[in-house]
Amino acid sequence: MIKHKSEHDEVNNNLSETPDIPAPTRFYLGEGVSLSEQDKANCIRLVSEARMAICHPGQSGYHVKTAGLTENGRFVRGGNDENSVCDAYCHGETSVMSQARTLGEQVRMIGFHLAAEKPDDLGIAPCGACRDVLEQNASPDLLLIGGDEKIIVVKRFADFLKEDFDDVDVQKVDAEGVRWGIVALRSAAIGYITEDVRKKLYGVALIGENGLPRARGSFDTNAGYDAIPAGLAAAETFRNTVDPAKPEDLREIVVAGLGDIPRLLNRDKAELLELDEVLRMGGRNSPLPIYLVAVDPKTLVPTKAQCTNTEECFPNPFSAGSFGMTEALGKIYGALFHEKR
Hints:
Elements: E1 26-29, H1 37-51, E2 56-57, E3 66-70, E4 75-77, E5 81-82, H2 92-102, E6 107-113, H3 128-137, E7 143-147, E8 151-156, E9 166-168, H4 175-186, H5 195-198, E10 203-208, E11 213-217, H6 230-239, E12 250-258, H7 266-279, E13 289-295, E14 302-309, H8 326-337
């Protein structure tokens, strides 16, 4: 979900009405993006369609006004629809994808109605959950367009993804962290999911600054499919087991998967980054390293590993730190360890 504060327009998502389309003053193209004149016209139309989208931001208070253009040239409107007390909601980007999928079509462009004086202020950055949906259902060449008909920024979805991390000696990865990761992986709630999903599961271990395992997280869900990924579970375990009177930090994160190097969900990348940003309010400056470890399914012996960190793995981040929300991070840190910030 892209955050943008705007007034709620009393219009519906019926596309029978075509919005007025003023010509933009400037286009700003991300790396590797080239547009034909027809593409530019589509971008203008998209942000105009997005302006007319309806949103129901019951939890965030942010109106994420979106629209999409399908491969067959059809425009669809989206918009976030949130429940105020739980995560049973639809983000702006996923709303567009859902609309297109019900028509049996693929999306090639998603537009966001955003207002800013400078292109750098438009802040096109899908959240982790939206990246997961887009990665599963769209091409890396999907174009993300943000603007207000005066300034339009266009970026490739590929710019928000990263999986090519450095190989490291698996013997140098914390052995107890790997064991905790395996325990978390084997504790996953697999009774409600398909075999294909089971193959993608992993366990997450958070290693304390003293070098000892501090918290672990495994995939959880229920009959209502209220899924909690392993990274989020580990972060929440840590938050709910700290001693408020004793501020602490983490040293590293270990992620264990069976067979091959595990692929972290973008939602988990976002969650671990934001936890890291909170903990860095205690004085640490560098991001937490993340070790991705492949484990032999039969022997449970680690076979290979890669290393990244909370910032590298989540490019063009969607997080409190990337939004400059230092005061909010300080309040969260203070609530966690009962300190005034």
